[in-house]
Design a protein that fits this description.
Elements: H1 2-15, H2 20-25, E1 32-36, H3 43-59, E2 63-67, H4 74-82, E3 89-94, H5 95-104, H6 113-116, E4 117-126, E5 128-132, H7 141-149, E6 155-159, H8 165-177, E7 181-185, H9 190-199, E8 204-208, H10 209-218, E9 222-227, E10 253-260, H11 265-280, H12 282-290, E11 294-295, H13 301-322
Parallel strand pairs: 1-2, 1-3, 6-7
Antiparallel strand pairs: 3-10, 4-10, 4-11, 5-8, 5-9
Helix pairs in contact: 3-11, 5-13, 8-13
Length: 328
C-alpha cells in the first residue's frame, strides 16, 4: 500500500504545478517592454506608442517604451535578442534596423540575427516622395532627368547617411535614369535633408510622406512621384514610381514588431492577435491617417517570417548591386 500512496501523492503534486501551456495562457501577467532603435519621435517610436496605448487596454498590462538608439539599430536588436524569450521584451524596428543592418553590418553583430530574432508581424508602411528643389524648373520626372543630364557631375542628392536604404534607392534611381550625381550624407536627419533641398544645396532625394507632406503642399519642395503601390488619395495627381518607369525603386518604409527567436508560439500568436485588433480600432486608424501611416499588417506569424525572409533577400541583392563602400 505504501508504494501506491507515494505514487498517488506524486501525481497529486504534479497536478497542481503550472504547465508551460497554462503559464502561457496567462500571458501577459506583467508589463511588456518595447525597445525602439531610435530616439523619440521617429516612425517606430510613434507606431509603438500609438499601438501600445491600445494594447495596454486590451491586454491589461502597461506597455513600456524604451528608446535605445545607436550602432545602426544593433544595440536595440542585440538587447532584445538576449532577453528572456517570454514575450516581455520586444522591439519595434524598421527596414533599416531589421532588414538592412543584419546584412550590411553582419560582422559587427554579436548574434546570428536570423537565428536569434523572429518577427511577430509587420504593422505599417509609410510611402515616400521623390522630391526635388523648388528652384529646379522641372515639373515631371522626365523633365528633371533631362535637366540633371545637362548638368552631369553638378547634381547632388542627400540621405540620412551612407548605406541607408534611401542611399541604395537613389543609386538605383540615378543609374536607371542615367544621372551622374554626388551623394551628400546628412548627420542631422530629415530636418536638415529638407532644409538642404529647399535651399537647393541638394537637388533631389526620397523623403517619407509623413515628414514632407506639409512642405510638398506648401511648395517648399516639389514632389515628382511616390514610392507606393498606388496613388495617395490626398495627392491624386502624383504618379507612383512604377508609373514613371521606375518600378521597384523607392521604399515605403515599414515598421515591424520583433521578439527573441525562442519565444513560445502561443505568446507570439497572442501578440499578433492583440496588435492586429489594435490596428483596427478607430483611434489608431484616425491617428495614422493624419500622419500618412498606412496600416498593412501581415496576416499571421508564419506570413511574417516569410515576409522578413523575402525582405532580407531583396535588400541583400540591392546592397550588392549598389556597391557602396562604407570605408570611403
Amino acid at each position: 500500500m505504501k508504494p501506491i500512496r507515494l505514487a498517488l501523492g506524486a501525481l497529486l503534486a504534479l497536478s497542481v504545478l503550472p504547465s508551460p501551456a497554462h503559464a502561457q495562457d496567462k500571458y501577459p501577467s506583467k508589463p511588456i517592454k518595447i525597445l525602439i532603435p531610435f530616439g523619440p519621435g521617429g516612425a517606430p517610436d510613434i507606431v509603438a506608442r500609438v499601438v501600445g496605448e491600445q494594447l495596454r487596454a486590451s491586454l491589461g498590462q502597461a506597455i513600456v517604451i524604451e528608446n535605445k538608439p545607436g550602432a545602426f539599430g544593433i544595440l536595440a536588436v542585440e538587447t532584445m535578442a538576449a532577453a528572456k524569450p517570454d514575450g516581455y521584451t520586444l522591439m519595434m524596428g524598421n527596414v533599416a534596423t531589421n532588414a538592412m543592418t543584419p546584412i550590411i553590418h553582419r560582422k559587427r553583430m554579436k548574434i546570428d540575427y536570423e537565428k536569434a530574432v523572429v518577427p511577430v508581424m509587420r504593422l505599417t508602411r509609410i510611402p515616400a516622395f521623390l522630391v526635388i528643389a523648388p528652384s529646379i524648373p522641372a515639373k515631371t520626372s522626365a523633365e528633371f532627368v533631362a535637366w540633371a543630364k545637362q548638368r552631369s557631375g553638378q547634381v547632388r542628392y542627400n540621405t540620412a547617411g551612407a548605406g541607408s536604404f534611401v542611399h541604395v534607392d537613389l543609386i538605383a534611381f540615378s543609374r536607371k535614369a542615367g544621372i551622374e550625381a554626388a551623394h551628400i550624407p546628412v548627420k542631422s536627419g530629415a530636418v536638415q535633408m529638407m532644409s538642404d533641398i529647399m535651399r537647393g544645396d541638394a537637388h533631389f532625394t526620397f523623403m517619407n510622406v509623413a515628414t514632407s507632406a506639409g512642405q510638398v503642399r506648401g511648395g517648399g519642395v516639389r514632389a515628382l512621384a511616390i514610392a507606393a503601390d498606388k496613388r495617395l488619395p490626398e495627392f491624386p495627381d502624383l504618379p507612383t514610381m512604377a508609373e514613371i518607369g521606375y518600378a521597384g525603386i523607392g521604399t515605403a518604409q515599414w515598421q515591424g514588431l520583433f521578439a527573441p527567436a525562442s519565444t513560445p508560439d502561443a505568446v507570439i500568436e497572442r501578440l499578433h492577435k492583440a496588435v492586429t485588433e489594435a490596428l483596427k480600432t478607430e483611434t489608431v486608424r484616425a491617428h495614422f491617417a493624419k500622419s500618412f501611416v498606412q496600416i498593412d499588417p501581415t496576416g499571421s506569424p508564419a506570413e511574417a517570417r516569410t515576409w522578413l525572409k523575402d525582405e532580407m533577400t531583396l535588400w541583400a541583392k540591392a546592397w550588392s548591386e549598389a556597391n557602396i563602400n562604407l570605408d570611403d
